[in-house]
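Last lecture ended with a question: if I hand you only a sequence, what can you say about the shape of the protein? Today we answer it with a concrete record. The protein is Caspase recruitment domain-containing protein. Below, first the input exactly as provided, then the predicted structure, then a couple of comments.
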Amino acid sequence: MQREEREIIVDLLQYLTDDIIAGDMLPHLNCLTQDDKEYVLCEEKNYGYRKAAVVLIDRIQRRQYGFQQLISALIQTGCKHLVKLILMRQNGLLQSLEGY
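The predicted structure:
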């Protein structure tokens, strides 16, 4: 993942971790290793959705093509509103997140 992509993810981390269910996204994230996926599932089982989402985002940021696969996984799991936020931020259209 490129630096600019990481910055976008960090800026939107709260929104991502509030809304995604990590376990549902795993089948759509081929950039992750099997160990990554197992770790995310364990975190989800033991600590809940939010902790698993934090771990998932951390692992995605370390992988090549992670940003593109994150976008695709969000679409495929019904989180198009998050894709909209990401694209708005990426295109410089989102200066403030107040109201979201």
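Comments.
1. The longest helix spans residues 34-47.
2. Helices lie at 3-11, 13-19, 22-25, 34-47, 49-61, 66-76, 80-90.
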